[in-house]
Design brief:
Largest sheet: 6 strands, mixed
Number of helices: 16
Distance between the termini: 53 Å
Length: 557
């Protein structure tokens, strides 16, 4: 097994030995830069290659595994990825990584980002199902894990069926006894002749293939010696005639488990049928993995786009903007300063572990937020009702705007064997944008918080996490986002703002109208009809400061 990293450079001479063509890398002098994320398998030498996302890079040529990219290439070597505890991470990573690629491909079958080889398809079995080499490999392992004991007793039953002229002395001397209660069962009865058993033929094929896969990929499987296994030259001969042999006995199996075993064996032999003219390589690559990462994160954070609001609308219009922009993530949650709801807007950032977004990304996020605000204001202007009940983007009295929370999500890897903890936490400084200084409730005053999340947790969740677990994570994440925003505005926070609640005797409407120019963008009426005033520490307007006598400072929670 070889491990390469997207975007990294390797000697051309080395890459030529791994790949059959240069479509997987871009030449740079004597080096080649890996262009894709995915996997590659050459059936002629049975070499399996993973091209991992660049998030597995930490710095320069150093990976998150504690090895350089040059050391990582052959790090697995001849060790077992199942038995060697040092390589458990590789076993888990290879399975989750491959399944994530397959899920994205099935979810977006028409995507031009996906490039894959002609895959294996069994004629006459199921024309709608297609299989890659890794599908077959993983299916063999799953089947063996699930049916190992059942196969054992089928084998024992098969080899003892109708023996002719049994040699009991030889059976006892050379056989392997199995204790079952008070009885002794021998794995094989030595006899001069034995009636051919179709189940035994199939079991021989299955375990010969399993042994081959075990040796080729250092799986570390403990295959009991009781099973008959064909190896070496005999197995290569079996690979050549395996398809025809299995087709002859195809209709002799009636149980579901034996039918499944037969299908798996036929898939394997069909994939390795050198005389069929099939491609001798199997691969699936993705050119823009940031789109895959976006979909994985969206699976965790966002509401369903088909989720219908109380006014009969869904989220498509909010995710896909009229100017062609597409939001990465959007969900509905409690506003910061009252119990109304507001849309939280997120953007996935697919970088190397530890990197942060540049200025261009921040400007794009602010543009996304303004589009969402405008969409909701248009609803108010056209139909005089919000996207959904209990939602307020602008209040009519002050013409102040509710704060739209924005966030960046970075994937990172701290522990390369940790798939269970999400490790969602703040990362970096809050990014701000405004048109007028010190106007918190102006529509152009925006904030973007930054967070990082364990990439391996995201990867596993994409293929394994159940709906209930995802719902629980969303609840935790949304509470965290809101709490971190509130901390930012709380006393002693980094925003520089202090919030006050109107405590005067003058009617709120009269007060706002009489001081509208002074308070424009600095005051906001909540859905509970509280008047909130935000005063920045650098705002030295004396008239504004004088108004604080009829306001009471509030504690943000």
């Amino acid at each position: 097994m070889k491990i390469l990293i997207e975007g990294e450079r390797y000697p051309i001479d080395y890459l030529v030995q791994i790949f059959r063509s240069d479509q997987f890398y871009e030449p740079y002098g004597n080096d080649g830069k890996i262009k894709f994320v995915g996997y590659y398998h050459d059936l002629s030498n049975n070499e399996l290659v993973f091209m991992l996302p660049k998030v597995f890079m930490s710095d320069c040529r150093q990976t998150v595994f504690g090895h350089t990219i040059d050391e990582l290439i052959d790090y697995v070597g001849n060790e077992s990825v199942i038995r060697d505890k040092r390589l458990i991470w590789m076993r888990d990573l290879s399975v989750y990584f491959y399944k994530s690629l397959m899920k994205f491909r099935h979810k977006f079958p028409d995507s031009t980002l996906i490039n894959y080889s002609p895959i294996f398809q069994l004629k006459g079995i199921n024309k709608t199902l297609q299989y890659s080499y890794l599908d077959i490999l993983l299916s063999f392992l799953t089947y063996y894990k699930k049916n190992g004991n059942q196969i054992l007793y089928k084998h024992i039953d098969a080899v003892q069926t109708n023996p002719k002229k049994p040699k009991w002395e030889k059976t006892v001397r050379k056989g392997k006894p199995i204790l079952s209660g008070d009885s002794i069962i021998y794995d094989r009865i030595r006899a001069k002749n034995k009636i051919a058993n179709n189940e035994e033929q199939l079991i021989v094929c299955f375990f010969s293939i399993l042994n081959y896969l075990n040796e080729q990929h250092n799986l570390g499987l403990q295959i009991d010696k009781v099973y008959p296994v064909v190896k070496g030259i005999r197995f290569r001969e079996l690979m050549k005639r395996g398809v025809s042999k299995l087709k002859k006995i195809k209709y002799r199996y009636y149980t579901d488990s034996l039918k499944e075993m037969h299908t798996l064996c036929l898939l394997f032999f069909d994939a390795h049928d050198q005389g069929s003219g099939k491609a001798r390589e199997d691969f699936m690559t993705i050119s823009e993995y940031n789109i895959v990462f976006e979909d994985m994160v969206d699976n965790l954070f966002s509401d369903d786009l088909d989720d219908i609001s109380t006014n009969g609308r869904n989220l498509y219009s909010l995710k896909y903007h009229k100017d062609g922009k597409i939001l990465d993530h959007i969900f509905d949650h409690t506003s910061l300063f009252d119990d109304s709801s507001i849309f939280y807007i997120g953007d996935s950032k697919y970088y190397k572990s530890g990197a942060e977004a540049k200025q261009e990304s921040r400007f794009k996020q602010f543009a996304y937020a303004k589009n969402v605000i405008q969409y909701n204001i248009d609803l108010l202007n056209e139909k005089n009702r919000p996207y959904k009940a209990n939602q307020q983007y602008r209040d009519e009295l002050t013409e102040g705007y509710n704060i739209t929370p924005n966030f960046f999500i970075y994937g990172y890897i701290d522990k390369p064997d940790d798939y269970s903890l999400n490790e969602l936490k703040p990362n970096g400084e809050v990014q701000t944008s405004h048109h007028f200084k010190h106007r918190l409730f102006d529509r152009d005053t925006l904030f973007v918080h930054q967070y990082k999340i364990n990439f391996l947790f995201v990867l596993k969740s994409y293929v394994n996490l159940r709906t209930a677990a995802i719902d629980e994570f969303r609840k935790h994440a949304r509470m965290l986002f809101r709490e971190e925003f509130l901390k930012y505005f709380a006393e002693g926070g980094k925003s520089g703002y202090t919030l006050y609640r109107y405590n005067g005797t003058e009617d709120q409407t009269d007060f706002v109208n009489n001081n509208f120019k002074l308070l424009n963008g600095k005051i906001y009426q909540t859905i509970e009809n509280d008047l909130l005033l935000a005063v920045h520490k650098d705002d030295d307007d004396e008239k504004l400061r004088a108004l604080l006598l009829i306001f009471k400072e509030i504690e943000i929670q």
